[in-house]
């Protein structure tokens, strides 16, 4: 099968190559990938030098956002059969014994192995997935749109399970990438009063969000601050969420949060970011991180996907074959599209 492989720890050492098809075990299924979308973390893994403690262990097939059709099942599979259309969580292996595994927070198990980082992922014609990670597609949702289930589940974990946005909260989401877009959707579904901010470069993303009834604003920090303070009687937002991960956007999230407010971290920080914790101390702010998603995130995400798939499917702006992976990666790096997917033959 064709597969996109991160070969070594050297930066940009990626190659499309033929590999043997994966083999099922008792509790796994073999899925023929139909679509797999490119995440910002895939670009990060492509460009990084992988040093000690790196999340990704080469050689490995990257990619973790995918959907497809089951073509083979292990001997102990009970609830799925050949021909089922599925999407899937990214946890492939966990210890099953730690306090986090016992509460099904597999995303923060120290021994977790995830698809596309420590286990072969979805930028290939086939992938192996454990039964516990599988989900059948909601009614009306096609395989192409279902490849976006993973970032939607991450946004559910961030907004609903970690930050716990509630009805009436004033919520500022900074950055209209996939996580920012989906975070806005989740916050609105919980009754939050949401503003999604971006730059002029992201006008097409903001327009799509506005069709979900989300207030959007395009401009610099001054314009965003003016609108937030208008909405909150000069107090600041109850919740701000940085979905960019830069020094500028993190400071913006801190500056526009009210006293006793919550700041959510919805993106990988872009390197080491200098930060003045005195403002957190004096204004009694709460910083909340969010790593990937957990099984409960997917249950809620499936509901949101079913309700909003007619808009979500339009997030996908470009489609490539694996043969054209370099062109696809450049498009994502340049932020020219929104969600870019691989369509498998």
TrEMBL record:
UniProt keyword list: Metal-binding, Oxidoreductase, Zinc
Domain Enoyl reductase (ER) residue range list: 11-342
Organism: Acidilutibacter cellobiosedens
Protein name: Sorbitol dehydrogenase
Gene3D superfamilies hit by this protein: Medium-chain alcohol dehydrogenases, catalytic domain, NAD(P)-binding Rossmann-like Domain
Annotated PANTHER family: L-THREONINE 3-DEHYDROGENASE
InterPro entries assigned to the protein according to its UniProt record, in alphabetical order: ADH-like_C, ADH-like_N, ADH_Zn_CS, ER, GroES-like_sf, NAD(P)-bd_dom_sf, Zn_alcohol_dh
Gene Ontology terms for molecular function: oxidoreductase activity; zinc ion binding
Entry superkingdom: Bacteria
Family from the record: Belongs to the zinc-containing alcohol dehydrogenase family.
Cofactors named for this entry: Zn(2+)
């Amino acid at each position: 099968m064709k597969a996109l492989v991160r070969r070594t720890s050297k930066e940009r050492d990626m190659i499309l190559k033929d590999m043997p098809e994966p083999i099922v075990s008792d509790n796994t299924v073999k899925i023929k990938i139909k679509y797999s979308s490119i995440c910002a973390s895939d670009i990060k893994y492509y460009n990084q030098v992988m040093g000690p403690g790196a999340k990704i262990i080469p050689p490995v097939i990257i990619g973790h956002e995918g959907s497809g059709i089951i073509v083979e099942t292990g001997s102990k599979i009970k609830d799925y059969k050949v021909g089922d259309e599925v999407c899937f969580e990214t946890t492939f292996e966990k210890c099953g014994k730690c306090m986090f595994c016992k509460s099904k927070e597999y995303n923060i198990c120290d021994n977790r192995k995830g698809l596309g980082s420590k286990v072969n992922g979805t930028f290939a014609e086939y992938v192996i997935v454990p039964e516990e990670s599988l989900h059948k597609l909601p009614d009306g949702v096609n395989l192409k749109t279902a490849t976006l289930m993973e970032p939607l589940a991450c946004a559910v974990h961030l907004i609903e399970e970690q930050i716990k946005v509630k009805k009436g909260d004033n919520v500022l989401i900074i950055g209209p990438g996939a996580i920012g877009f989906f975070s806005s959707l989740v916050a609105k579904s919980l009754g939050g009063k949401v503003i999604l901010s971006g730059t002029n470069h992201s006008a097409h993303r903001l327009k799509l969000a506005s069709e979900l009834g989300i207030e959007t604003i395009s401009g610099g920090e001054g314009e965003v601050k003016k609108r937030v303070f208008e909405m909150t009687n000069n107090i600041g937002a109850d919740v701000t969420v940085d979905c960019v991960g830069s020094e500028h956007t993190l400071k913006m999230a801190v500056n526009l949060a009210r006293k006793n407010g919550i700041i959510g971290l919805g993106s990988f920080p872009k390197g080491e970011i200098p930060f003045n914790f005195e403002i957190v101390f004096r204004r009694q702010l709460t910083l909340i991180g969010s790593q990937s998603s957990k099984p409960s995130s997917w249950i809620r995400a499936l509901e949101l996907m079913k309700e909003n798939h007619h808009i979500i499917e339009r997030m996908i702006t470009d489609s490539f074959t694996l043969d054209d992976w370099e062109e696809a990666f450049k498009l994502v790096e340049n932020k020219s599209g929104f969600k870019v997917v691989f369509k498998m033959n």
